[in-house]
Amino acid sequence: MSKEQRIQRYTAPERINHWIVAFCFVFAAISGLGFFFPSFNWLMNIFGTLQLARILHPFVGVLMFAAFMLMFLRYWKENLFNREDWVWAKNILKIITNHEVGDTGRYNLGQKCVFWAAIISLLLLLVSGVVIWRPYFAPVFPIPLIRIALLVHSLAAVGLIIVIMVHIYAALWIKGTITAMVEGWVPAAWAKLHHPRWYREVREKQQENKP
C-alpha cells in the first residue's frame, strides 16, 4: 500500500505507550482477581508465587497509571465532547449496524467515553490503592478508611475491567483498528469512512508540509 493510500494514526512511541498500559492491565487484573476471589488464587501461579504477585501488583498498578497519564496528556484535547458526539449518540442504532454517521474527529463518542471512564477508574484505583498498600502506607490510615478504600478499589477495578472489555470488543469489531495500534497506520479509505474530520485535518497538514 502506497503512502498516499494510508495515513499514520499512531507513532511508535504512542504504540509502545499503549502496549505498556495493556500489559500492566493484564498483570494487575489477573493478580487482582486472584486476591479478590479465592477460587481464582491459581491465577497468581502465573507470576511464580502468591507472595510475589502481592508485592508486584501495586508497583505494576502505579506503572500502569503513569503510562496512562502519558496517554492522557497526549489525547485529552481530542477526547473533549462536541456537537458531533450528539449526532453520533442519536444515531447509535445505525452505528451498531456498522453505518457511520456525523463528521467524526480522531475519536468518536464511544471511544471518548472509554477514555474518560478509564482515567476516572485509574484515579480511584491509585488513591484507594495507596490507602490499602501494605506495608508502606496502610499503617498511616485508620481501619474504617481502609475498609472504604478496599470497597472503592474493588468497584473501580471491576469498572476498569468492563471498560477494557468494551474497548477490546470495539477494536475487534471495527476492522483496521488493531492494525492501527500494531503497525501505526490505517488505510486512507478507513480514516475517511470512520473519522472524516480527522481524515481532512491530516490531509490538510500533509498539503501544508509539501515542498
Automatic annotation (TrEMBL):
InterPro entries: Cyt_b561_bac/Ni-Hgenase (IPR011577), Di-haem_cyt_TM (IPR016174), FDH_cytochrome_b556_subunit (IPR051817), Formate_DH_gsu (IPR006471)
Cofactor(s) the record lists: heme
Biological processes, Gene Ontology terms: anaerobic respiration; formate oxidation; respiratory electron transport chain
GO molecular function terms listed in the Swiss-Prot or TrEMBL record: electron transfer activity; formate dehydrogenase (NAD+) activity; formate dehydrogenase (quinone) activity; metal ion binding
Transmembrane annotation, as ranges: 20-43, 55-73, 113-133, 145-172
SUPFAM superfamilies cross-referenced by the UniProt entry: Transmembrane di-heme cytochromes
Compartment annotation: Cell membrane
NCBIfam families for the chain: formate-DH-gamm, PRK10639.1
Designated name of the protein: Formate dehydrogenase-O, cytochrome b556 subunit
Organism: Serratia symbiotica str. Tucson
Species lineage: Bacteria, Pseudomonadati, Pseudomonadota, Gammaproteobacteria, Enterobacterales
